[in-house]
Design a protein that fits this description.
Length: about 290
């Protein structure tokens, strides 16, 4: 059962509830009247503004939003598959910025899905279908070539499960993408960035074009953080993506081409046999 406790300012209250993945908290945003941050066991997962679903607060979500903006001409509807739901932030964003888009959200945590539906309801006019299922199992049921964009943002206990890091998993992603479709993944890693390098090498074994967006300090291996990996069989909008990410409130950097190959440093392709979960965040990473 969800519980409320008084927030730090005003009348909004923090909502806490046990979910399959731990203890969920919906914390009110002190600056935005109908905005909330979702945390699972203290780790921030999503930020949603019900009055302005096009507002993206988290750095990595802004970068994914830029990708969604650039994969097709403005306002053109998309077919988007979201692996990992959280508070459905990116699905809300696409619905707001690209009306008439058709979206599927897959979130394994059924209790979390129900909490978000109850407390942060989706626009009933948005064409968003939410399913509680394992991301890879659900991926296998999506028709070939269905998606213009696949966004992977799956974390359990602040770690991406091993079976969602392999070449076999990405083969399934490639199958459901349209010929000019794009894959975007939120990855988390810290020094020595072995997980991130392995994920780039794995994507490079299947897709012809890659780009990576992250905070420069993360790319230099100085701290734990998020990186957005973009992969496609078509040319990527690297120039405009670089411009947008450099102009964000927390500017990031985009690597591609030879620089990205050099960054990978000969890392091996990850297979189901060798796959491991992403590394856990260090103590204090979210404080």
């Amino acid at each position: 059962m969800a519980r409320n406790r008084r927030g730090g300012r005003g009348t909004a209250e923090t909502v806490t509830a046990p979910v399959d993945g731990g203890l969920a908290e919906l914390v009110p945003d002190r600056e935005r009247p109908r905005a909330w941050t979702l945390l699972i066991d203290g780790a921030p997962q999503s930020h949603v503004d019900l009055d302005d679903p096009a507002h993206l607060s988290f750095e990595y979500q802004r970068r994914l939003g830029h990708v969604a903006d650039l994969v097709a001409p403005a306002h053109q509807p998309l077919r988007v598959l979201h692996l990992g739901g959280g508070a459905f932030t990116l699905a809300r964003y696409v619905a707001a910025t690209r009306p008439r888009s058709t979206q599927q959200v897959v979130e394994v945590d059924a209790a979390l899905v129900q909490l978000v539906r109850d407390r942060l309801p989706l626009d009933p006019q948005a064409r968003i279908k939410v399913r509680s299922a394992d991301a890879r199992a659900a991926l296998g049921k999506v028709p070939d070539g269905w998606a213009d964009l696949v966004i992977a943002d799956v974390f359990g206990g602040a770690r991406t499960p091993a079976h969602l890091t392999s070449a076999e998993f990405l083969t399934g992603v490639r199958r459901v993408l349209a010929p000019d479709g794009c894959y975007a993944a939120n990855l988390a890693d810290g020094p020595p960035l072995a997980h991130l390098r392995g994920q780039i090498a794995t994507a490079a074994s299947l897709f012809g074009h890659l780009a990576l967006a992250a905070d420069p300090t993360v790319l230099r291996g100085r701290r734990f953080g998020n990186a957005v990996l973009l992969a496609s069989d078509r040319e990527l909008p690297v120039t405009e993506l670089t411009r947008r990410i450099a102009g964000d409130p927390h500017p990031g950097r985009v690597e591609h081409g030879r620089a990205l190959r050099d960054f990978t440093g000969g890392a091996a392709v990850v297979t189901d046999a060798s796959a491991k979960p992403s590394p856990p965040p260090p103590a204090g990473a979210f404080s």
